[in-house]
């Protein structure tokens, strides 16, 4: 292991730039966490240009950051456990019949809130639907929301943020202020208002809403890391050699700026899944006949006294999924951050 | 934060005091009522607490304590009895002479006079005052002058109301309306003191009426304290020292407060707690019929639901709903499967009878056959729409849909369309934008069969949201209203109801019972037909 | 410094206008509020038309917005549908939410920093790993689940605390809701202070302090904590703004009549004056909190100077 790179007390700390100080995102602690940790990551890129120390510039090393990270990840049990878990969840999301052939929409009110019995290990909910079948089938909606919203927010956010950071000027100012506008709206409030006018029964309005409020966070990260990446010597060199903006951005800047975005996105994925549940609790999330953990949890939460099993299973599944994605994001972050090796 | 090792109330209090956040909030002792005062759950009235602007139960609760009108519905029988009125006389069912009893005063000392009523009614009807209940005065001659359909008012008061002397006034109606005096127990018809007209804003902050309670303090959105008015001269003096109405956002929280001893009375036990009332409260629990009916209305303004033959599909859907099972499993028997379009709280004399008959009885095979005969569901699907922000609508809608789906056995053909907010739902319904069946809860304003039928199913009636129209039904209602004899009028209304049973413009689901739980401190807790506790009868201690 | 503040304040103007416009559009999209005023009954057309006219609902949207903003600058936030001035509603709701936020923040500080410091000093040990997993689990549980669970267990089953909050919203009643509200941020504070402590324990000045023979606890309290907690403290400052707007779920579960409750009621009834007014204030709180946090940085960390 290489000697960790350390800073003296009077060097620039990780929080030197007030514009990038941790501001609350309105999306809850996990999102704040993801943002600040990704911002800490950014500084990895600035430090090599510092006046002292051995600059471990990306180009100056035998192994790239990515190979290094991969080597570390392979040996990290947290990464292995969480990716196995995610693989399993994705499998049942695509193909729930692997685990159950029961129909989650087939309900018998006569069995309302009954406990487990042979063939129905998790018991029944208020409507007399099989909790096991609903928990298994609920994975699809929840994971679709998580992945689609993360992809959408990450693509939109890094595109806008990256362009703003690279080109600067009035476009940058406009973007930053627009992002501030979205930060200013409490998430739950925005959900209540936006989603209460929607009548679609698919997951896409919820995905769209999360993308709408989620992109500024990613954009902020992407902007910051593009700005730092663009200051590197090799980018300046390429520029002086006459490389066009497009080539510069795609070939030189983007690959070196993408790490923080990946970290935020993985952690955000977990929080988006939890957000869907909160929206369902407020009556504006996914709609039946979609089966989702959020719907089941919000139906079960008030029944906690009568039938705790109704809450336990979907809530457990949700927490496990969120946990898996946040742990994955955490492991990736650790692997990409040379300071922590 | 040196030294602050635990967030004890004292430390936090000190910080709060420094921040100049109402320091008094740190002093007060435990909640709960003091001597003879009971606390009861409430939710914030939607509109200002004026009699003619209040059209929901929560505001009605307060008005019932603070006001007494010409008539009052007997909490036990629902019969309209004279309260402030000494007599309401008529010879032609169209022109009425109202005489007031002596000795009634408002709690600020003003006398209750004929003018108190006439001024209040004119105020209520006048368009400039934007009172929700203005249409209740539309039967009076001259209503159009103060409440034109568009434009400014042409008069200050209605010609049909004339003050004869301090205790007498006359009312002229546009048409014959034999049961008109029976409607006068409704809160829109309460009298108002002069203090209201001189300073309305101050009055609204602390309403003054002529009832057994006075408003001690009112913090909108959180609490109202009512105290017994010792100067009250009416026959129903309050038996407790007062009532504290506390606003709850979630009736489940209110229930939990009740069982942990922080609250004395909850008049809306949440569905999910109904299983526990027996063990939590024992016999301190009331469950009795109220004048509330839940129905599922079909959008007859849409041709696919109103074309000939569809009445079979509508009947089939009614027969596909297992009301017995749903009321038992979801509501633990606190709803009663509906057998007609009124309420058992009317009593048989009032017109309640099993008129839906077979059409309201669950029969899977017959339901399937009827729906197939009628040409099947439009597009093979049906959606149920309701707001889901309050009540347990989500649960019963899921249950109804599952019932229909299980009967048809063709997968999820019935789906629930939850609407996030009541406001949004009301807009969709009143603008006829709902494409499938939708919920309609009807709470009668007064215990008359007319109020369950005419506003809801008469052609063009104000709350006929499904746009049902049937000439024979309209004719029977007209005949009933002109009938001076009560029993004969009820007969005509029942005949009209039989048409509903054949056409099924709205599926009666269940009668909503009033349910309430109370603490050991209270006794003599009763609910009236509007599922509101009769506060003045409750004793504390 | 002064120029920096002025610049930031100027930047707030477009953000403020943008946010209020967005909220206004959103509430407008919810539709006509008038029908809901009439409950389950049909609105009387003439009365409804008059109410719309008085609320300017018959005007085009841009005009409504201008009228509204004009009134706001005169200090008039309009009247809620129940006849109460929105400013009065604010006067009762904001202190309650402020108290709740305060309780939550105190819990965050006390519990979060303690755990974070312990965890950071024991980096890599079982205790640290255990705390890390606990914070992750806490993050993964939605607020309404932890709210209902704690309310049921502590309030009803074991009867340790009152399951709801009275209208006075006394501070001792707010502890449980405060914990629920704080939980997620608590996990964050723990992790933030852990990272910060872990980084600083290897810093030269700490090594120097240890080398010159200072006792361990003195090194920790005097040198390590002071430098490590700068980001934590500033985060908590900014979190106040986010907590105030984010308490909708917590306030609903515990029956707290604060900002979240008023907002929720306002949305349910399409009560645009309430919703727009409250959000406007929240946006201002949010913007000012961000500015204060940035300035706090400069105060706490002498290396930062604003031009």
Gist?
The complex is a heterotrimer of chains A (341), B (541) and C (307). Chain A is mainly α and 341 residues long. Helix content of chain A is 64%, strand content 0%.
Give your account of this protein's structure.
Chain B: This is Peptide ABC transporter substrate-binding protein. Chain B: Residues 1-25 form the signal peptide. Chain B: GO terms for molecular function: peptide transmembrane transporter activity. Chain B: Keywords: Signal. The complex is a heterotrimer of chains A (341), B (541) and C (307). Chain A is an all-alpha fold. Chain A has helices at 29-46, 65-74, 77-94, 131-167, 169-184, 187-195, 204-230, 233-240, 245-281, 293-300, 308-336. Chain A has eleven helices and no strands. In chain A, helix 4 runs parallel beside helix 7 (204-230) and helix 10 crosses helix 11 (308-336). Chain A is elongated and about 75 Å long. Chain B has 541 residues and is of the alpha+beta class. With 307 residues, chain C is mainly alpha-helical. Chain C folds into two domains: 2-73, no CATH class; 95-300, MetI-like (MetI-like fold, Orthogonal Bundle). Chain C is built from 13 helices and no strands. Chain C has helices at 2-29, 34-37, 45-54, 61-73, 86-121, 126-140, 143-157, 175-201, 204-211, 216-245, 248-253, 259-268, 272-300. The longest helix of chain C has 36 residues, at 86-121. Chain C is globular, with a radius of gyration of 24 Å. The model of chain C has no long low-confidence stretch (mean pLDDT 80). Classes of the chains: A mainly alpha (341), B alpha+beta (541), C mainly alpha (307). The interface between A and B is medium-sized, with 28 and 32 residues.
CATH level-four homologous superfamily name of chain A: MetI-like
CATH architecture annotation of chain A: Orthogonal Bundle
Please tell me the overall pLDDT of chain B. 86
Mean pLDDT of chain A: 74
Number of domains of chain A: 1
Number of H/I helices of chain B = 18
Percentage of residues in strands of chain B: 15-25%
Distance between the termini of chain B: 47 Å
Q: Helix-strand pattern of chain A, N to C?
A: HHHHHHHHHHH
What is the level 1 CATH name of chain A?
Mainly Alpha
Shape of chain A: elongated
The radius of gyration of chain A is 23 Å
- Biggest protein-protein interface? B-C, 73 and 69 residues
């Amino acid at each position: 292991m290489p000697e960790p790179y350390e800073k003296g007390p009077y060097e620039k700390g990780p929080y030197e730039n007030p514009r990038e100080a941790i501001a609350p995102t309105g999306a809850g602690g996990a999102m704040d966490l993801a943002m600040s940790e990704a911002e800490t990551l950014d500084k990895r890129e600035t430090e090599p240009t510092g006046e002292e120390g051995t600059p471990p510039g990306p180009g100056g090393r035998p192994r790239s950051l990515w190979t290094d990270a991969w080597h570390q990840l392979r040996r990290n049990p947290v990464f292995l456990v969480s990716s196995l878990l995610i693989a399993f969840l994705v499998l049942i999301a695509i193909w729930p019949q692997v685990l159950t052939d029961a129909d989650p929409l087939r309900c018998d009110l006569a069995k309302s809130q009954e406990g487990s019995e042979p063939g129905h290990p998790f018991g029944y909910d208020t409507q007399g639907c099989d909790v096991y079948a609903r928990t298994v089938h609920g994975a699809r909606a929840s994971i679709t929301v998580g992945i689609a919203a993360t992809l959408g927010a990450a693509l939109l956010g890094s595109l806008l943020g990256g362009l703003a950071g690279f080109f600067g000027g009035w476009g940058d100012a406009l973007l930053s202020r627009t992002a501030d506008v979205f930060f200013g709206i409490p998430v739950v409030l925005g959900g209540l208002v936006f989603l209460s006018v929607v009548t679609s029964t698919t997951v896409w309005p919820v995905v769209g809403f999360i993308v709408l409020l989620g992109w500024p966070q990613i954009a902020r990260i992407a902007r910051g890391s593009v700005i730092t990446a663009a200051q590197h010597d090799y980018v300046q060199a390429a520029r002086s050699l006459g490389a066009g903006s497009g080539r510069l951005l795609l070939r030189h800047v983007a690959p070196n700026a993408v790490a923080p975005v990946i970290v935020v996105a993985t952690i955000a994925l977990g929080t988006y899944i939890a957000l869907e549940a909160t929206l369902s609790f407020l009556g504006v999330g996914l709609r039946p006949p979609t089966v989702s953990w959020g719907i089941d949890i919000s139906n079960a939460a008030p029944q906690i006294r009568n039938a705790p099993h109704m809450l336990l299973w979907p809530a457990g599944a949700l927490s496990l999924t969120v946990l898996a994605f946040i742990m994955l994001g955490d492991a990736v972050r650790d692997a990409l951050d040379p300071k922590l090796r | 934060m040196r030294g602050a090792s635990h967030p004890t109330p004292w430390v936090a209090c000190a910080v709060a005091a420094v921040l100049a956040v109402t320091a008094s909030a740190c002093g007060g002792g435990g909640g709960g009522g003091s001597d003879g005062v009971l606390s009861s759950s409430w939710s914030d009235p939607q509109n200002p607490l004026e009699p003619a602007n209040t059209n929901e139960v929560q505001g009605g609760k307060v008005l019932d304590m603070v006001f007494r009108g010409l008539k009052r519905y007997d909490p036990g029988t629902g019969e309209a009895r004279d309260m402030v009125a000494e007599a309401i006389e008529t010879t032609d069912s169209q022109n009425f002479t109202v005489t007031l009893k002596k000795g009634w005063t408002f709690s600020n000392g003003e006398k209750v006079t004929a003018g108190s009523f006439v001024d209040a009614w004119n105020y209520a009807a006048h368009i400039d005052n934007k009172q929700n209940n203005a249409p209740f005065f539309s039967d009076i001659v001259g209503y159009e002058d103060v409440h034109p359909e568009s434009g400014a008012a042409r008069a200050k008061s209605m010609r049909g109301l004339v003050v004869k002397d301090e205790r007498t006034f006359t009312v002229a109606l546009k048409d014959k309306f034999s049961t008109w005096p029976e409607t006068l127990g409704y809160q829109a018809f309460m009298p108002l003191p002069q203090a209201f007209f001189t300073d309305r804003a101050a009055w609204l902050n602390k309403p003054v009426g002529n009832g057994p309670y006075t408003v001690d303090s009112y913090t909108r959105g959180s609490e109202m304290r009512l105290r017994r008015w010792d100067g009250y001269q009416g026959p129903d003096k309050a038996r407790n020292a007062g009532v504290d109405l506390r606003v709850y956002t979630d009736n489940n929280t209110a229930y939990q407060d009740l069982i942990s001893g922080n609250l004395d009375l909850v008049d809306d036990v949440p569905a999910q707690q109904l299983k526990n009332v027996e063990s939590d409260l024992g016999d301190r629990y009331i469950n009795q019929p109220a004048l509330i009916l839940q129905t599922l209305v079909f959008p007859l303004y849409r041709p696919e639901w109103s074309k000939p033959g569809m009445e079979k599909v509508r009947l089939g859907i009614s027969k596909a709903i297992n009301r017995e099972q749903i009321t038992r499993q979801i509501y633990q028997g606190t709803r009663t499967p509906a057998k007609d379009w009124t309420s058992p709280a009317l009593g048989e004399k009032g017109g309640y009878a099993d008129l839906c008959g077979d059409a309201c009885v669950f029969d899977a095979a017959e339901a399937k056959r009827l729906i197939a005969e009628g040409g099947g569901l439009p597009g093979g699907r049906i959606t149920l729409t309701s707001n889901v922000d309050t009540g347990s609508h989500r649960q019963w809608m899921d249950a109804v849909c599952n019932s229909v789906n299980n009967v048809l056995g063709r997968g999820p053909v019935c789906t629930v369309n939850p609407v996030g907010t009541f406001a949004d739902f009301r807009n969709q319904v009143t603008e006829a934008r709902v494409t499938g069946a939708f919920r309609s809860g009807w709470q009668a304003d007064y215990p008359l069969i007319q109020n369950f039928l005419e506003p809801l199913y008469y052609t063009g009636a104000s709350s006929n949201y499904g746009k049902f129209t049937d000439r024979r039904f309209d004719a029977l209602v007209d005949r009933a209203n002109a009938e001076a004899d009560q029993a004969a009028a009820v007969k005509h209304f029942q005949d009209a109801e039989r048409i509903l049973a054949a056409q099924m413009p709205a599926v009666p689901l269940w009668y909503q019972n009033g349910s309430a739980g109370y603490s050991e401190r209270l006794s003599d807790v009763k609910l009236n037909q509007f599922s509101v506790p009769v506060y003045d009868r409750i004793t504390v201690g | 410094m002064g120029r920096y503040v002025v610049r930031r304040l100027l930047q707030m103007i477009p953000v403020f206008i943008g946010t209020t416009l967005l909220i206004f559009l959103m509430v407008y999209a919810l539709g006509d509020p008038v029908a809901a005023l009439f409950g389950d009954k049909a609105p009387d057309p003439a009365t409804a038309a008059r109410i719309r006219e008085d609320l300017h609902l018959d005007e085009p949207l841009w005009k409504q917005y201008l009228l509204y903003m004009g009134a706001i600058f005169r200090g008039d936030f309009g009247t809620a549908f129940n006849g109460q001035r929105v400013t009065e509603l604010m006067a009762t709701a904001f202190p309650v939410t402020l108290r709740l936020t305060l309780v939550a923040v105190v819990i965050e500080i006390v519990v979060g920093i303690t755990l974070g410091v312990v965890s950071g000093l024991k980096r890599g040990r079982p205790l640290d790993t255990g705390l890390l997993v606990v914070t992750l689990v806490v993050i993964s549980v939605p607020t309404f689940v932890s709210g209902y669970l704690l309310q049921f267990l502590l309030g009803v089953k074991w009867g340790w605390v009152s399951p709801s909050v009275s209208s006075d919203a006394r501070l001792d009643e707010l502890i449980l809701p405060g914990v629920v509200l704080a939980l997620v941020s608590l996990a964050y504070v723990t992790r933030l202070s852990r990272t910060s402590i872990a980084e600083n324990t290897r810093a030269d000045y700490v090594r120097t302090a240890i080398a010159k023979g200072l006792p361990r606890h003195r090194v920790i309290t005097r040198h390590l904590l002071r430098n490590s907690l700068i980001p934590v403290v500033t985060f908590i400052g900014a979190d106040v703004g986010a907590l105030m707007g984010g308490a909708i779920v917590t306030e609903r579960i515990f029956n707290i009549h604060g900002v979240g409750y008023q907002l929720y009621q306002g949305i349910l009834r399409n009560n645009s004056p309430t919703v727009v007014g409250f959000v406007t204030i929240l946006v201002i709180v949010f913007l000012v909190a961000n500015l204060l946090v940035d300035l706090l940085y400069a105060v706490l960390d002498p290396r930062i100077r604003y031009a």
